[in-house]
Amino acid sequence: MSHRATVDGLRLHGLHWVARLALRVRPPLQAKALVDRVASALPIRDGADEARAAVRSLFPAGSCLSRALAVAAVVADAQVVIGVDPWSAARISAHAWIEIGPVRVDTQPLSDAPFPDELVRLSPRRTRADGTAARGPSGRDGFGAALVRRLRIGGARLRHLSRPQGRHFAEGS
C-alpha cells in the first residue's frame, strides 16, 4: 500500500469519526453540513467504484448513515438517500445509501436485502463539472424533509443500530 493510499484512508476514517460524532449531537442535515465543511479540505474521489472501496474500508464501523455522510462528502455527485420500510409495524426500519447518478452504492456492502422506499435525498456538495452543488434536502414532500430534519418520534431521538440480519434501522431510545 502506498503512502498516499494510507494517508487517504486515514483521512476518510477521520472524516467518518466526525460524521459519527456529529450524528450523536445534531440532526442529520446539520451533521451533513459539518461533514461537508470538514471534507472540503480533502481530495475529491470520483465514481461509484471509489465510493464502494471507501464504504468497504469503513464497514462495519458506525452506522449506514455515518458511512453514507462520510463517503458522499468526498465523492463527486454523490447523494445520500434515506429510505424507510413502511411495512415494518413494530419499529421504524430505515437505511441510508449513496447514489451517484443512476448507480446505488450500499453502505452495507455484505447485505443483499432490498432497498427500502426512498424518503429523502440529501443533495451532493461536490460536483465534477462546475464545482457547485445544490444545498439542502430534496424530499418527495414536506413530511419527508421534516422527518429528516428532526428524526424525532414521540420526542425520542432516533439512533441507527445494526439488525442481526445485517440491515440498519433507527429506534427510539
Q: Can you walk through the features of this model?
A:
This protein is an alpha+beta fold. The chain has one domain. Helix content is 38%, strand content 22%. The chain has helices spanning 3-25, 28-39, 48-58, 64-74, 142-150, and strands at residues 78-84, 94-100, 103-106, 117-122, 152-153, 156-162, 168-172. The strands form 2 sheets. A 4-stranded antiparallel sheet has the order 3-2-1-4. The longest helix has 23 residues, at 3-25. Mean pLDDT is 76; it is low at 132-173.
Concise account of the structure shown:
This protein is of the alpha+beta class.
Shape: globular
Number of helices: 5
Question: What portion of residues belong to β-strands?
Answer: 15-25%
The main pleated sheet reads as: 4 strands, antiparallel
Q: What percentage of residues falls in helices of 4 or more residues?
A: 25-40%
Assign the structural class, choosing from mainly alpha, mainly beta, alpha/beta, alpha+beta, or little secondary structure: alpha+beta
Q: Number of DSSP strands?
A: 7
Mean pLDDT: 76
Count of separate structural domains: 1
SSE order, one letter for each helix or strand: HHHHEEEEHEEE
The termini sit apart by: 41 Å
